[in-house]
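Closing statement on the pyridoxal-5'-phosphate sub-project.
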Amino acid sequence: MSINNESSYLRNTQNSQRWYSRACRVFPGGVSHNIRFFEPYPFFVEKAHTKYLYDVDSNAYTDYWMGHWALILGHSPKHIQNRLIRQMQEGTLFGTANNASVILAEQIQKAASPVDLMRFCSTGSEATMYATRLARAFTKKRIIVKSVGGWHGFNTNLMHAVNYPFETTEGIGIDEGQGEFVKSIPFNDLEGSIHILDGIKEDLSCIIIEPVLGAGGAIPGKKDFLIGLQEYVKKNNIVWIIDEIVTGFRLHYGTFCALNNLQPDLITLGKIVGGGFPIGVVGGSKEIMKLADPVLKKDKRERCFIGGGTFSSNPISMKAGMLTMQFLEKNKEKVYRRINSLGNEYRQKLSRLFTDSKIPVDVTGMGSLFQVHFLKGSMNEITNAVDASTADQERLFNYHRRLISDHGIFNLPRKMAAISYAHNKSDLNKLVSATEDLINRSIFDTNVA
Ligand SMILES: Cc1ncc(COP(=O)(O)O)c(C=O)c1O
């Protein structure tokens, strides 16, 4: 990847460069999550407030990464801060049953039907791991199906067909045999998917799908694809899992499923429902979830062991989640109208700007989520993760990098952006005029980095 013309970034982030050298002595690659690295080195954040990140060189960035898309209300919303300070004084980890967890669970249950029962854990990766384990326990079958480019976190089962080229294994250290019981279907291609499913349905436990590919490129699932898969699983007694870790409470006060006539057996949630603190949720049909009931299933041979973990239901995540959900419920008209209509405007305006400048793009997304894809060759739209991965990644990287260095606007390079309730029209205008400036300075011309 070209790093020409980077002088302003290097000049303005000298403290970050020093922190990066220190970080490389303690973390492989200097980061604790692979995607947080970008060339030549990431800026190091010291604090964040509303829609801004502030780095160790005192640069401010308008943030569209928003904590891996978790922060729907922006960084550290005021009305949540004070309540959390009180909770810090009253205990951060009880490690016992606690009432705050019941309140948050009731709130989720009321809004995220169909969730008869649920379990809290600390990450989305755990939630999807537990969901697939429950499906195997329930069906007594082995194969898990996900989509090509679907991202469900770092659990070993689901580290399959995540990164381009999708046919090869996801790195060393994952047993090649693992793939025998994990298969991938082409996203948004119902016929191609059913062809694969028909060949494995005798041993098929579940299909797990993101209804909008997030890390795979901000690509909404088409109605016929999602409904077609749903009909297939219902007909063949396969557990239907919808991963709503990104979409849950992002598009409206509830799930994507509720808006789109999807009736999963299990769903997973995370991000938004933790109010900026670690969380994962697996929930759904009583019939399946009760396999994990330690009171009912005393004999370990009959129980499906799902977590938890040390930090599950900790009172900080529970309170932050509860306060966020209460705010969203109370202000749902205002919040979702604002962020969804901003999202539509971002997509339309960016699309028009590039198209008028004869730069072929597809600006994908839904609601407050968006991503620009620079089309190559004969491509004219992005409908799956293969399209997204084979679009012009270098142009996308240069666009995001120049937004950071020249305009103080942060999209995690090459990744989907999320608008929060802290953003407004002036942020839209700023992004549009920054993009216009970069177009006028020819950074999208071939060979100009
Ligand atoms: C759809 C989806 N599922 C699961 C996960 C994993 O969640 P976590 O990073 O909390 O483990 C992510 C993370 O981005 C995600 O986007």
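The pocket of pyridoxal-5'-phosphate is lined by residues 68, 123-125, 128, 151-153, 210, 214-215, 243, 245-246, 270, 280 (CB under 6 Å). With this model delivered, the sub-project is considered complete and its resources will be redirected to Aim 3.
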